[in-house]
Amino acid sequence: xxxxxxxxxxxxxxxxxxxxxxxxxxxxxxxxxxxxxxxxxxxxxxxxxxxxxxxxxxxxxxxxxxxxxxxxxxxxxxxxxxxxxxxxxxxxxxxxxxxxxxxxxxxxxxxxxxxxxxxxxxxxxxxxxxxxxxxxxxxxxxxxxxxxxxxxxxxxxxxxxxxxxxxxxxxxxxxxxxxxxxxxxxxxxxxxxxxxxxxxxxxxxxxxxxxxxxxxxxxxxxxxxxxxxxxxxxxxxxxxxxxxxxxxxxxxxxxxxxxxxxxxxxxxxxxxxxxxxxxxxxxxxxxxxxxxxxxxxxxxxxxxxxxxxxxxxxxxxxxxxxxxxxxxxxxxxxxxxxxxxxxxxxxxxxxxxxxxxxxxxxxxxxxxxxxxxxxxxxxxxxxxxxxxxxxxxxxxxxxxxxxx
Amino acid sequence: xxxxxxxxxxxxxxxxxxxxxxxxxxxxxxxxxxxxxxxxxxxxxxxxxxxxxxxxxxxxxxxxxxxxxxxxxxxxxxxxxx
Lengths: 404, 82
Ligand SMILES: [Zn+2]
What we know:
The complex is a heterodimer of chains A (404) and B (82). In chain A, 5% of the residues lie in helices and 40% in strands. Chain A has helices spanning 2-11, 294-302; strands at residues 23-27, 42-47, 58-63, 67-72, 77-81, 96-101, 110-115, 119-124, 129-133, 148-153, 162-167, 171-176, 181-186, 202-208, 217-223, 226-231, 236-240, 249-255, 261-266, 270-275, 278-283, 321-323, 332-337, 341-346, 351-355, 370-376, 389-393, 397-402. Chain B has one domain: DPH Zinc finger (Microbial ribonuclease fold, Roll). Chain A binds chain B through residues 28, 30-31, 33, 65-66, 82, 85-86, 91, 93, 104, 117, 133-136, 145-150, 152-153, 169, 188, 268-269, 286-287, 289-291, 338-340, 356, 358-359, 394-397, and chain B through 1-5, 11, 13, 24, 26-29, 49-52, 73-79, 81-82.
């Protein structure tokens, strides 16, 4: 349609042509979360319209329910997608289909970001945390349940240096450089740790999460109602809604004691765990409770999926731990997870995706589901970009960015 | 097909614009169930954007002649620059 084409052109900025070969997105797009100038789903990688000056400088992309945040190596942040709760931080509630610099934070150097379902967080190099978006579950940590459409400083963390942020659907986790982990927001499933009262549903004030015995936490993770942390020895702790079984847990528990975990990616019902070069899935993709199309069943047979032996491990959860089948000669270097799909990058610079594909979030040109990782052609004319890509997921979409 | 998930009504949010209780759908949109549906004893919340649906757990008697909730979520408010 001519009008749509015009609309698309209007959003483009003059310097955007060069974005074609270094940043891409695909999947659900109706809120503008693909950042490609439009409001449509795309089943194949599209150019993500980050300004050319960001080329090779994008250090992280956080994907939320239908919005995303890109962080550059010199501390600038861009947001795009759904803005209905102020989560883009531009002072309004507009959906924006292209990355836009968060002006409010222009005079700050941002070091880490995270995106929840409808909320966003930005930590600075000077020990400040700014939050915006939906605050109705207390997930902004501001001591109230108000939403904010400009980044709002959480006074509690002023002067306390933040190492990592990890936001789930309705909750937020903060890892400080002093090794403490804080949580706030929805407490319904134990995802922000123990509450004073058992019936407490939300906690809008940051609260220390206890239960990491004499260890240095190096990373935290959140998605859906799940929370996780990894310490410097590769020990994995999880709490919140269970990935396996029925019981919520408000206490971090160490799981998979036989693994030395280097990376984790959480979905809404599954987790990816990378350990000694092997990739495992914990839990199940819920969409697969639906009838899989025929092609999916064929893949199950081809994929040589095997359940990991539980004989060497005391954890009963291991019976639900599966090795992700993979291609000989390529090694997994980075993993990411949406709500119901997963992505990885290999040392050869290839991107693979699998899981739920209804919105094209696998980037394979159709809407099929896949149980085994499939190679994505990101349209770089078949050029191998050895080890130089990073992949990130929002709920129903995926982003890939070329590294320097 | 089976339900994507099971959610208690108290974990859903009333959306005055959609006139429905909503819950996040993994596709990025919202599962929705209207007050009329609840009055009729319907247990399925559907997402307008995808094939997934939720089972809603609630007490039918609570909704037999329920009125639209008046408590609205606080809207995003502009905040002065510190
Ligand atoms: Zn949906």
